[in-house]
């Protein structure tokens, strides 16, 4: 670990990032060039003291998950992320199927605080959510292992299906099985997609039934109906922005202006993150 290089690199990347880049107000009295340390720490999901010690060349060696969080918080490119890992004494993660979110997607997310939106991988692993997405769906970034994939949770955990009305479940099951088949064909043998498929075939009869249909390109469930424990059913449209280099997608949920679902979306901020299993 090169503490001096790490400290200087973090400082220069923080100073190069403007408040507007991450959806923060500049304010009339801001004198700091770029972001403040406490702002960079908050964006990276860590304490201001921990981040400050890294910039002051006296912090502990960051773990790979911590470095990944810093890379997202500072909107680093893949080349910058790899450099960050190396000077911190770790091998960079593989670029194929990476969890790293591109700076462009992070800038878009920073402007969507008033909209349910999230970034997912091709295995439906949620990498990032806006607060309103957590209010609508629950915190989907907290899962580990195979449960990181919403496809896995859908077929193995009944609570995962509570987010949609029961009559819509077959359409979602069909779509998830087809999406996983497409991901498996791209990733191939020995991949995370194969591990997910093998586990689901052994543990879910419902998945086996849909998988046996060998369907690809199943239609998306559109519009999507969400069942919220306090607001009831919300009918939302899902716009998808693909990042082919990262095999990721930005999902943005909107309601028809003036509709009942639009009014319910306006109430979500007051309700906070949706409780687990509700």
Description:
42% of the residues lie in helices and 12% in strands. By secondary structure, it is α+β, with helices and mostly antiparallel strands. The protein has 2 domains: 3-87, Orthogonal Bundle (434 Repressor (Amino-terminal Domain)), CATH 1.10.260; 103-270, Beta-Lactamase, CATH 3.30.450. It starts with a helix and ends in an 11-residue tail after the last helix.
Largest beta-sheet characterization = 5 strands, antiparallel
Please state the CA-atom Rg, rounded to the nearest Å.
Answer: 20 Å
Question: What overall geometry do the principal axes of the alpha carbons give?
Answer: globular
| Distance between the ends | 44 Å
Fraction of residues in H or I helices: 40-55%
Tell me the number of helical segments per DSSP (H or I, 4 or more residues long): 12
The CATH architecture of the largest domain can be given as 2-Layer Sandwich
Strand order in the sheet with the most strands: 2-1-5-4-3
Structural class: alpha+beta
- Low-confidence stretches are none
The succession of helices and strands, N to C, reads HHHHHHEEHHHHHEEEH
CATH class of the largest domain, named Alpha Beta
* Total domain count: 2
CATH topology of the largest domain: Beta-Lactamase
Strand content: 5-15%
Arithmetic mean pLDDT: 89
């Amino acid at each position: 670990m090169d503490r001096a290089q790490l400290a200087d690199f973090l400082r220069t990347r923080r100073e190069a990032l403007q408040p507007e880049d991450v959806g923060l107000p500049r304010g009339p009295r801001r004198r700091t060039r770029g972001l403040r340390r406490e702002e960079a720490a908050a964006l990276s999901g860590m304490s201001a003291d921990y981040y400050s010690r890294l910039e002051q060349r006296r912090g502990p060696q960051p773990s790979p998950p911590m470095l990944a969080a810093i890379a997202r918080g500072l909107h680093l490119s893949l080349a910058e992320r790899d450099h960050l890992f190396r000077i911190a004494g770790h091998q960079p993660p593989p670029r194929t199927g990476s969890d790293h979110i591109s700076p462009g997607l992070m800038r878009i997310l920073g402007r969507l605080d008033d909209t349910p939106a999230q970034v997912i991988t091709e295995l439906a692993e949620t990498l990032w959510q806006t607060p309103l997405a957590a209010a609508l769906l629950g915190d989907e970034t907290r899962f580990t292992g195979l449960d990181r994939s919403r496809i896995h949770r859908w077929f193995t955990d009944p609570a995962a299906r509570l987010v949609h009305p029961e009559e819509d479940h077959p359409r979602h099951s069909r779509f998830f099985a087809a999406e996983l088949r497409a991901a498996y064909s791209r990733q191939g043998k020995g991949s995370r997609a194969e591990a997910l498929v093998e586990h689901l075939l052994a543990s879910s009869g419902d998945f086996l039934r849909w998988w046996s249909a060998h369907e690809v390109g199943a239609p998306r469930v559109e519009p999507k109906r969400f069942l919220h424990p306090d607001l009831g059913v919300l009918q939302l449209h899902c716009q998808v922005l693909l990042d082919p280099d990262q095999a990721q997608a930005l999902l943005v949920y909107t309601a028809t202006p003036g509709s009942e679902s639009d009014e319910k979306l306006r109430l979500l901020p007051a309700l906070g993150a949706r409780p687990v299993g509700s």
